[in-house]
DNA sequence: GGTAGACAGATCTGCGAGAAGTGTCCAGAG
DNA sequence: CTCTGGACACTTCTCGCAGATCTGTCTACC
């Protein structure tokens, strides 16, 4: 509860997840090696994360949140709805391209812990909906929900199965999302 | 070249793929067992399909075409654009639900031969675009392309990761596709 | 708090023998 | 002319088994 202890704990968690991510992409992710690399005893890890799955879950959670934070930042950086989505999708594609853990979670190829794809899609959809409601309150509520889910699913789809250059994908997804968000039309 | 020979060959291919699909979902797909179940020699199989991969490719190809034929039939059965897509997506979800081979191809979980997902998405997109161009020629060409790709990707996404009952998914995808197909709007 | 060590039990690894499958050949039957 | 059955070399599963490693927990210690 003391500042030092809390800081040390948070730092340990952060370091542990950094190393765990490294080990994971390397294919070997075990508690003994994780502890050794951190210069800490196995027990400390078990105390902090409960068990191996706890480390894995925390790792997935952090990767997801960082991913979505980056996307939301890109969204917020633009004022035009279409431009915002172009930037967001482009950011998502970029991150997915050079984050092995994220790519593994989304494509599900490596033996990842809890698939992860579902959590990411759900979280992305909810964040996108929140952003739209907040930034464009005049949009129809149902359309916002549909646009958010479509944005999340289309982006993941293009990460898993890219058929066009990133810029083109971003443009296409953005156009689709904007047209859906615009509502029934008449 | 004689009718009898051609018919026998076609029948053999069809039977072979039926049995191959059975063996595949059962997890054991080998040339000796396939030949035995067909009451034919292995050599005949190799003559007809070239090699094991040839059987696999033919199997995937047929599954894909049947899948898309079913969807296109559902599309053609409705006159309203929205209703047509509701029916098509519902048909796709239904088929994917009770066709193990198809589901394996799309989700990529079982060790399928050539992933298959890419071929399916591409073929679905192209067929959807063809249908839209043919049936709704007044639609903007670029919008049709975008709507077709979105329809294909969203449907696959909802098959791989279903988060809502099929009827709701069909309704959502149809709404999204129609709004995209409608064009820039103004 | 944290460490080091020990512990039973599960899980992974390497390995070799044996079985099975792959792809190709050919002689022979219908 | 097509299909069969058998043989062939080669590669790829499979299975058992021993040894190593990992997991999760406990205890003594600092």
Automatic annotation (TrEMBL), chains A, B:
Q: What residues are annotated to bind DNA? A: 30-49
Q: For the HTH tetR-type domain, which residue ranges apply?
A: 6-67
* PROSITE patterns in the cross-refs: HTH_TETR_2
Q: Tell me the leader sequence span.
A: none
Q: Pfam families of this UniProt entry?
A: TetR_C_35, TetR_N
Q: What keywords sit in the KW lines?
A: DNA-binding, Transcription, Transcription regulation
Q: Which domain of life is it from?
A: Bacteria
Does the keyword DNA-binding belong to this entry? yes
PANTHER family recorded for this chain? Answer: HTH-TYPE TRANSCRIPTIONAL REGULATOR YJDC, TRANSCRIPTIONAL REGULATORY PROTEIN
Name of this chain's protein: TetR/AcrR family transcriptional regulator
- Upper lineage ranks? Bacteria, Bacillati, Actinomycetota, Actinomycetes, Pseudonocardiales
């Amino acid at each position: 509860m003391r500042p030092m202890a809390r800081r040390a704990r948070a730092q340990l968690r952060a370091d542990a997840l950094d190393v765990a991510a490294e080990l994971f992409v390397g294919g070997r992710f075990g508690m003994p090696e994780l502890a050794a690399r951190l210069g800490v005893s196995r027990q400390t890890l078990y105390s902090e994360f409960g068990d191996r799955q706890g480390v894995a879950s925390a790792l997935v959670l952090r990767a997801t949140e960082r991913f979505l934070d980056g996307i939301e930042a890109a969204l917020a950086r633009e004022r035009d709805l279409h431009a915002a989505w172009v930037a967001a999708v482009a950011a998502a594609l970029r991150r997915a391209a050079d984050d092995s853990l994220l790519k593994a979670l989304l494509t599900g190829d490596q033996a990842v812990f809890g698939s992860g794809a579902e959590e990411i899609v759900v979280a992305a959809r909810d964040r996108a909906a929140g952003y739209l409601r907040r930034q464009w309150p005049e949009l129809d509520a149902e359309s916002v929900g549909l646009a958010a889910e479509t944005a999340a699913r289309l982006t993941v789809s293009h990460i898993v199965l890219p058929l066009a250059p990133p810029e083109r994908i971003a443009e296409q997804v953005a156009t689709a999302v904007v047209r859906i968000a615009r509502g029934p039309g008449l």
